[in-house]
Each structure stands twice: as structure tokens, then as C-alpha cells.
Amino acid sequence: MATPSVSFEFFPPKSLEGSFRLWDCVNTLAPLDPTFVSVTYGAGGTTRQLTHEAVSTIHRTSGLNVAAHLTCVDATRAETLEIAQNYAEAGVREIVALRGDAPKGQAKFTAHADGFASSVELIEALAETGQFTIRVGAYPEKHPEAADQAADIAFLKRKIDAGARSAITQFFFEADTFFRFRDACAKAGITAPIIPGILPIENWNGTQKFAAQCGTHIPQVIRDAFANATRDGTTDLLATALATELCDDLVRGGVEHLHFYTLNRPELTRDVCHALGVTPKARLQNVA
Ligand code: FAD
User: How far is Cα 124 from Cα 118, in angstroms, rounded to an integer?
Assistant: First the structure.
């Protein structure tokens, strides 16, 4: 079986303890030589400054290729493009461009009066700068706001046509879900790579809540297994086995790159990567 390339998603820390945890996460996973790592942008644009600091610090101190998430929420076009420009000046060359969700307390995304009205507009503007590799989000089980999967995929095609290089999917738990989506995207004329997003289940209760919000189906067999593992205190073992099996199926089905949602807890992701044959590489900066 071929060894996949990998990438890792982190979130920006909000406390000193969180900063140490992120640092530990970066140091644990950097030796696996990720193609890129990405840093999220808090819902409602709440971590604008923290995301910038985390992205710039990781970029400067680790030498990793860092992708900054950026959303359209609660900012003018000029403010959003200024954030992007600051990234370019810091040497950051990748952006995960998203529409984003509504700030807390609001039911639906509403564009800022002077802001980007959709992810497509943001992607077009970023592409026009010519400074970034742009990645976007994709939804194998349909975005909750999409009328149906065909409409969702048609919208994804608009995002790719606007200048995105690849799409990273929402997490899912069955390889066939991804393969069906990949086939439907290909049929709709999308040729850009679709990168599966993998969530090793670090927190079973949190995962169930998050999956319900995103419309991600959790198979009954996984629910039963976690009920038993919770009783036996073996949830980490189960989570590692399930994520490894999912990744293994994906790679056997032709997937070349896997993106891991680490939630700033590196151990499960590291163990899954090791099981897939993604093992530490000596990095030039450590040898020189
Ligand atoms: P879009 O793809 O722009 O819209 C979602 C769907 O809604 C579309 O697929 C389409 O079906 C429909 N739709 C939207 N606009 C239109 C339109 N004008 N016409 C027709 N249909 C339309 N959120 C954060 O706040 N911060 C993050 O850092 C973050 N990172 C993420 C990373 C990944 C890989 C993913 C998959 C999601 C992430 N999210 C993040 C969540 C994301 O912001 C939400 O899912 C949001 O609701 C949609 O953003 P999007 O850019 O994917 O949306």
C-alpha cells in the first residue's frame, strides 16, 4: 500500500496552557513532514488576532508550510484583504478560504454590508492577488444549508473555478461516503483534488454533538463500540483503530493525501499516521 502524504489542522490557543499544548502538538507532528498545517479562524471571526499570531509563529519557528483559515464573517472586504496581505508579508502562502458560520446568537450567516457575500467572492478576491494557494471546504454528506447534494457540488465547482487549488472535506466515518462524493464531484467536472478530513475521536460526547450540527452520520457500529470502550476505559485504543481503518480504506481506494483534525491533541493523529507508515523524517534544519 502506498504511504499517503498528510496535513494537520490546529486551532489558535486562548490561554498560556493552550499555547503550550499547541506547541507540543506542532513539535509532535512536525517530524511526520506534513505537506501543510492549517490554523482555524474562530467562529464569527472571534480569533482574528490569535489566528494571525499562531500562523505567523508556527511559520517562523517551525519552518512548516502553514495555511491560514479565513472567513467572510463580520468584516469588510478591505479588512479581510488586509488580513490576507499581512499573511503574505509574513511569508504565509496558503489560505483556507471559507464563508464561515454566523456569530453566536445569530441563526444564519448574513454578509457584512461592505463584506464578501459568499466564499466565491472571497476566493475570487484572494486569487486576484496572485499570492496564495487557496483551499476550500467540501461536504461529503451535504452542507446543512444546501438544498441537495447536486446543488452543494455545483457550488463547490464554482469555488474551484473561482481559483481554489483543492478542497478539504468535513469529517465523515465511512470510506464509501467519501468515494461516492469524490465520484459525484468528478462527474460534475471537478478535477481539483478532494482531500478527506479525518477526525480521530478524541472526545466521544463532543464528537456526537459536533456530528449532529454538521450532519455527519455516525454508524451504529461505532456508537456501540464507543459505549463498550467507555465502560472499559479503552476509547483511545478504539479511536486509533477506527481512524486507522478508515484511512487505510481511503488509501486503498486511491486517496493520496489525508488531512487530520487534531483538536490540538497530537497523540491519536500521530499513532494513526505511524500505523499508516507515515513515520518521522529527519528534517534538514535538525541535521544542519
Ligand atoms: P460555502 O461552501 O460557501 O457554503 C456552504 C454551502 O451553502 C454551499 O456548499 C452551498 O451548498 C450553500 N451556499 C452558500 N452560499 C450559497 C450561494 N450564494 N448560492 C447557493 N448556495 C450557497 N468555520 C470557521 O468559522 N472557521 C474555520 O476556521 C473553519 N474551518 C473549516 C475548515 C474546513 C475544512 C471545513 C470543511 C469547514 C470549516 N469551517 C470553519 C466551517 C465553515 O465555516 C462552515 O461549514 C460554513 O457554514 C460554510 O463555509 P464554506 O466556506 O464551506 O461555505
Answer: 10
- Which residue has the least CA distance to atom 23 on ligand 1? 100
Residue 56 predicted with pLDDT over 80: yes
Is residue 89 annotated as part of the catalytic site, yes or no?
A: no
Under the banding of pLDDT at 50, 70 and 90, the label for residue 142 is: very high
pTM: 0.96
CA 99 – ligand 1 centroid, Å: 5
Cell of 33: 513532514
User: Measured from the CA of 100, which atom of ligand 1 is nearest?
Assistant: 43
Q: Report residues whose beta carbon is within 6 angstroms of any ligand 1 atom.
A: 40-41, 43, 69, 71, 96, 98-101, 118-119, 137, 143, 145-146, 151-152, 155, 168, 170, 197
Q: b or e along 88-120 (b: 16 or more beta carbons within 10 Å of the residue's beta carbon)? A: eebebbbbbbbbbeeeeeeeebeebeebbebbb
Q: What's the pLDDT tens digit per position in 186-223?
A: 999 999 999 999 999 999 999 999 999 999 999 999 99
- Ordered alpha helix ranges (H), 119-254: 119-129, 149-161, 175-187, 204-214, 220-232, 235-252
Would you mind telling me the total number of residues written for the chain in this entry? Answer: 288
Q: What's the pLDDT at 109? A: 86
DSSP state for residue 13 in the 8-state scheme:
-
Q: 139 alpha carbon to ligand 1 midpoint, in Å?
A: 9
Please give the distance, rounded to the nearest whole angstrom, from the Cα atom of residue 98 to the centre of ligand 1. 5
| End-to-end C-alpha distance for the chain, whole angstroms | 32
pLDDT band at 160; cut points 50, 70, 90: very high
